[in-house]
Amino acid sequence: MKTYLTFLCAFFLFSVSINAQDSAPASKQVGVTTLPIIYLNNGIGTDGGFGGIAVYGNYGWIFKNYNVVGLRPFWGYVDSGSSRNQHLQSLGSNVYYRRYFNRNRLSFFVDANIGLGYIWYSSDSPSFEETLQELNGLMFNYAFGPGVDFEIKNGWNVELIIQYLQMQNIDHPEDTNVGKSLIPSIGVQKFF
Predict the structure, then answer these.
(1) Whole-number Å distance between alpha carbons of 122 and 99
(2) Nearest CA to 35 among 49, 20, 51, 47?
(3) What secondary structure does DSSP assign to the chain, as a single string?
(4) How far is 128 from 137, CA to CA, in rounded Å?
(5) Quick one: which of 35, 26, 11, 21 has its CA closest to 187?
(6) Whole-number pLDDT of residue 185
(7) Which pLDDT does position 94 carry in this prediction?
(8) What whole-number distance in Å separates Cα of residue 75 and Cα of residue 132?
(9) Residue numbers in the chain where pLDDT is lower than 50
(10) Rounded to whole angstroms, how far apart are CA atoms 13 and 191?
(11) Radius of gyration of the chain from Cα atoms?
(12) Do 132 and 85 contact (CB within 8 A), yes or no?
C-alpha cells in the first residue's frame, strides 16, 4: 500500500509540474549520471559480495521557482558474488521532479523519480539459469534524496546525489532479488 501511495504522490507532483510549465520560460536541463549500486538489505547475493553500476540520463524542463520536471531513462547491471553468480540487468524510464533551493555556483536540491522498467536475470550456473529467467518481468521503482551541484563553466555542472531506491518486480511480487538500496551518484548536467 505504501508503494502505491508514493506512486500517487509522485504522479500528482508530475501533473502539477506539467501544468505550471505551460506559462513558464523555456529553460532545459540535460545530463548523464553514473552510480555504483550498493544494496543495504534485501538485495542480490546475500550470501556473498556483489556490486553493479547504473547509468541514467536527464532531460528536464525548468519552470519558475527552481522546479524541474523531466524524463530519466536508465540502464543498470548488478553482479552477485555468490556461489551461483547471479546477474541482473534493468532498462526503463522514470519521470523525475527536482526542487532547487538556490541556483548559484553551488546549488542544493532534492530529487524524486518514479517509473517502470524491465528486469532480466541470468546466472553462470546452467541449473540455476532457468529458475532465474522465470523471474524476468516488469519492474516498478522509485527513488528520492538530496543533492548538490557545482557550476564549472557556462551552465555545465557536476553534481552529487544520494538517493534511497526501492524496486519491485511487478510480474513476480515474491521476488526478493530486487529491493532497497542507498545509491550515491555523480553526474554532469548542462543548463540552457
Answers:
(1) 38
(2) 51
(3) -HHHHHHHHHHHHHHHHHHHHTTS--EEEEEEEEEE--EEES-S-TTS-EEEEEEEEEEEEEETTTEEEEEEEEEEEEEE-STT-EEEEEEEEEEEEEEES--SSEEEEEEEEEEEEEEEEEESSHHHHHHHHTT-EEEEEEEEEEEEEEEEETTEEEEEEEEEEEEEESS-TT--SS-EEEEEEEEEEEE-
(4) 17
(5) 35
(6) 92
(7) 97
(8) 19
(9) 1, 4-5, 8-9, 12-13, 15-26, 40-47
(10) 22
(11) 18
(12) no
Our CA angle for 21, 22, 24, nearest 5°, is 60
pLDDT value, residue 98: 96
CA separation for the pair 125, 80 (Å, rounded): 12
Q: What is the pLDDT of residue 6?
A: 52
- Per-residue pLDDT reduced to its tens digit, 61-84: 998 788 999 999 999 988 775 655
